[in-house]
Design a protein that fits this description.
Number of helices: 11
Number of strands: 6
Oligomer: single chain
Strand content: 5-15%
Length: about 350
């Protein structure tokens, strides 16, 4: 039996204790997670898209109706999104601010910021189609962030931060649902297996880029069941709005390949902890068996009719009477309540990673 390396053992021990003591965590002795740094798309964007000229915006009602003060902040949900819930659960701070927020202070930078932009993907074409920052662009912002941290505390502070922080990447849904199946640009040159290979190659390169920059704790999410998103059911699910098997099969294929690639990278980068997080299985169960989790509606969102409304189409729309009954907020993004359950599972998955 292969023994855990000491760094991994202590980190997993921290997470086990975290699960035992509840949502706001008192860290065990000698274990620290000083910050969370987030990359990705609208699932985790906390407002970076407010600073771009793009159709992928949500800084208007009814978005944020259950956020602090009912304020729309650029979070693609009714309230907090996973980025916020992760730092909340780890006891770091209440919210993970967008890196482009001009009011950031030194404490914000040292406890974590968010580089994610709605409508991005592993495929750089995905971001280009929506005029948002690609993952490569987000990495450039991250490089600027490292220089700011060095100015605050020097190389030693930066090294400690990168060794102990949790760095997460949550993206890919737009690659499958939009770039591949809706536009013709990739399908002219790739079938589904070769396109998922392309996406995995981008993911692998991005993880290795983070590692070369000094990051050591990296979490990468799977794709969700994109064929069961309310918008995709409306567009491609027929009159009965069934889940689109073709989309889900592509997501599952990508997930298997990504998981295998991250295992390989863990072996190659011996001092890194690289975690694959499954966000396919549980959301699919939410959708198929909503009552099991206290939901009532899993096939449409709370905004408007819930079948197609998202971003500007959702703007100023009437919402459902009880958002807690819904898995989805709009036709693409889950509610804060669904996200809370997922983040709890996210921590549990890291514990079980080996």
């Amino acid at each position: 039996m292969q023994l855990l390396n000491p760094k991994l053992f202590h980190f997993l021990l921290f997470l086990i204790v975290a699960r035992m003591v509840g949502a706001v965590i008192k860290l065990p002795r000698n274990i620290t997670v000083p910050a969370v740094l987030m990359f990705g798309d609208s699932i985790v964007d906390t407002g970076n898209n407010n600073y771009y000229t793009t159709i992928a915006k949500c800084n208007f009602p009814p978005y944020g109706q259950d956020f602090m003060g009912g304020k729309p902040t650029g979070r693609f949900s009714n309230g907090k999104v996973p980025s916020d819930l992760i730092v909340e659960e780890l006891g770091i701070k209440d919210l993970l601010p967008p890196y482009l927020d001009p009011s950031l202070n030194d404490e914000d930078l040292l406890t974590g910021v968010n580089f994610a932009t709605g409508a991005a993907g592993w495929d750089p074409l995905t971001a280009e189609l929506s005029s948002v920052k690609s993952l490569s662009d987000q990495l450039e912002l991250f490089k600027g962030y490292t220089e700011k941290v060095k100015k605050i505390g020097g190389e030693q502070t930066l090294s400690k931060l990168f060794n102990e922080s949790l760095v997460a990447v949550v993206t890919g849904s737009n690659d499958i649902s939009n770039t591949y199946f809706i536009t013709p640009f990739r399908r002219l040159h790739y079938d589904v297996p070769s396109y998922t290979d392309l996406l995995v190659s981008y993911a692998s390169s991005f993880v290795q880029d983070l590692y070369r920059l000094g990051v050591r704790r990296i979490v990468v999410s799977s794709l969700p069941p994109v064929g069961c998103l309310p918008s995709q059911r409306t567009l491609r699910g027929g009159l009965e709005r069934k889940c689109v098997d073709e989309y889900n099969e592509a997501a599952e294929l990508f997930n298997r390949k990504l998981s295998a690639e991250l295992v390989s990278l863990n072996d190659q980068l011996s001092d890194a902890l690289i975690f694959f997080i499954d966000i396919y299985t549980l959301p699919l169960d939410f959708i198929q068996n909503p009552q099991k989790y206290g939901f009532k509606v899993g096939d449409r969102g709370c905004c408007g009719s819930g079948t197609i409304e998202v971003t500007y189409i959702c703007k100023d729309m009437k919402t459902c009477e009880n958002v807690g009954d819904y898995v989805f907020w709009d036709s693409f993004h889950p509610t804060e309540r669904a996200y809370r359950i997922l983040v709890n599972e996210f921590i549990n998955q890291i514990i079980k990673s080996l």
